[in-house]
Design a protein that fits this description.
The N terminus is likely disordered. The chain is about 25% helix and about 25% strand. The strands form 2 sheets. A 7-stranded mixed β-sheet has the order 6-5-4-3-2-1-14. It has a 7-stranded mixed β-sheet with strand order 7-8-9-10-11-12-13, covered by helices on one side. By secondary structure, it is of the alpha/beta class.
Length: about 290
């Protein structure tokens, strides 16, 4: 029996696919045995891979990623399945990768492009000038460039770039920029989509960007400020605050980048029920959004 969702994907045009909706470490998190992590070990459908999305079209056969998580290997398999490639023809189907920032779950997958793994050649990495300099100066990324596995192409923040059936622009995001800057992306296709998996706090400028979009996929690392004792070290606006700020928004809001502590991961939780009742949506690995 053919997979209904894959058949639907083939019939539609350009799609945004959630490849990973977990926070950087995913769910389960290494060394953790909280209820969510235990359940995800027992039931693999409950797992959340590292944060990444794909912009792809099965008819025109193009695919771009935003961020390269540590789970890139599994995420490439997801893409090949959606493209319905014959097992003997399956390959590395990525035309380019856009990066948001240097934190583990958003960049670690680049290392698997080198000679220890697939040894792919000249994959274009779209990034800011500061990110390009970081990749050029630090191992293992410097080595990947030297071996021609990756080719960083910088863009100017705020400038719209055109690729296949869509264009994309970026905006600055406040987010613990220990090494380089952080950006979110605005995807311009039939619909306008904001992808913002990581930020420290909301600004009026970013809220205005979301208001101008049809869809926004935003940071949901934590449901509330009391679920992690060290929140001051890893600041993220909790979902409670985000829902209050966006309660009157006409933009379709999806939450992503869930930390393993997030109470909405439990399908029986009152937090999940209340989030959905307020009209917000919860992204999950494999979710396909027509854009």
């Amino acid at each position: 029996m053919r997979n209904f969702y894959i058949d639907l994907f083939v019939e539609l045009g350009m799609q945004l696919v959630i490849l990973g909706s977990g926070q950087d470490a995913g769910v389960p998190q290494i060394g953790c045995y909280c209820d969510n992590c235990v359940k995800s070990r027992e039931d693999k459908t409950f797992r959340r891979l590292g944060p990444s999305i794909a912009l792809m079209d099965s008819k025109k056969k193009f695919c771009y990623l935003i961020d390269a998580s540590q789970d890139l290997k599994d995420q490439i398999d997801m893409i090949n399945e959606l493209l319905q490639k014959d097992p003997s023809e399956k390959s590395f189907p990525i035309d380019g990768i856009f990066l948001t920032h240097t934190h583990y779950g958003h960049i670690a997958g680049l290392w698997s492009l080198g000679k220890e793994c697939i040894d792919i050649k000249k994959i274009i990495i779209h990034c800011t000038q500061k990110m390009k300099q970081f990749l050029e100066n630090y191992h293992p990324f410097k080595h990947l460039i030297e071996q021609e596995n990756i080719t960083p192409i910088p863009f100017e923040i705020g400038t719209k770039q055109h690729y296949n059936e869509f264009s994309i622009s970026s905006f600055e995001v406040p987010h613990r920029n220990e090494y380089v800057d952080t950006v979110g992306y605005i995807i311009h296709a039939t619909k306008t989509v904001v992808y913002l998996p990581d930020l420290d706090y909301w600004t009026e400028e970013i809220l205005a960007i979301i208001e101008q979009a049809d869809i926004a996929i935003v940071d949901a690392s934590f449901y509330s400020k009391d679920e992690l004792p060290r929140m001051t070290n890893v600041p993220h606006p909790p979902m409670i605050e985000t829902m209050e700020r966006l309660k009157d928004s006409t933009t379709e809001i999806y939450f992503t980048h869930f930390n393993h502590t997030n109470k909405t991961l439990d399908v029986t939780s009152k937090e999940r029920k209340e989030t959905l009742e307020k009209g917000f949506k919860l992204a999950y690995d494999g979710l396909i959004i027509e854009v």
